[in-house]
Amino acid sequence: MSNKVHLGHTARKRFGQNFLTDGNIINRIVGAIAPDNDHVMVEIGPGLAALTEPVAQSIDNLTVIELDRDLAERLKVHPTLKNKLTIHQGDALKFDFSQLVVPDRKLKVFGNLPYNISTPLMFHLFEFAEHIENMHFMLQKEVVLRLSASPGTKAYGKLTVMAQYYCQVVPVLEVPPGCFTPPPKVDSAVVRLVPYAVKPWPCKDVELLRTVCNTAFNMRRKTLRNNLKPMLSDADFELLGIDPGLRPEDISVQQYVAMANYLFDKR
Ligand code: SAM
Question: Which of 124, 210, 216, 241 could be cross-linked to 248 through a Cys-Cys bond (beta carbons 3.0 to 4.6 Å apart)?
Fold first, then answer.
């Protein structure tokens, strides 16, 4: 059966459209999201409403951001959803999430994300972290492994450091390709990101942390000394209490923040 006949909509590759069609997985994801009226519930990329319908069932209002004009139009006339949805047709990457904040209610954000924009979208959302209670995202499994990795492992990298700087990261469940129409080429997984209300290792300049991470992980096989040569000398490493002979994946988020703060103070 073609996607069109099956879904009543032709999946658009350029919008990363892989629609969830497995009822069991949908229930488990909605259980993890735990929709409630005490938070502003926000869905990115509602598509054909596989998550939107069951989430909206138990709450009064759901805000959705959908890039595809046709899909946004469909939601506007959806018989059971139209009265509950606040629909923003546009690009979630450019969306100002602070406009959704209301006093004493943080956002709960979720979505089965288009994989081509998932990393920039998470970075965009980290900018609004103080307003967000938690986020549940369907991502490529490989990305979930990177987000939740521990130091000393192959998956640990700059995405890990930046995500774990802002959030507690909890892998929730794995989702095989057969749960989607059309099936994606890779395995997927749902992750929960919980922004820290109080950051355990506050950074004085997050852009500098990003630069340190990019530079440190420039060549994974090289040591911190080699990769960070333009920024930090052996004497600096000694003051920081970090062994410059280690590789970039061998040091903690806290140590990355320490390097960024050290460089900030030296400026
Ligand atoms: N939530 C639906 C589901 O689980 O079946 C659809 C998921 S599909 C992987 C991704 C959805 O995000 C599509 O509806 C797509 O049109 C939408 N989308 C793609 N890029 C977007 C963007 N930049 N901003 C908002 N929505 C986007």
Answer: 216
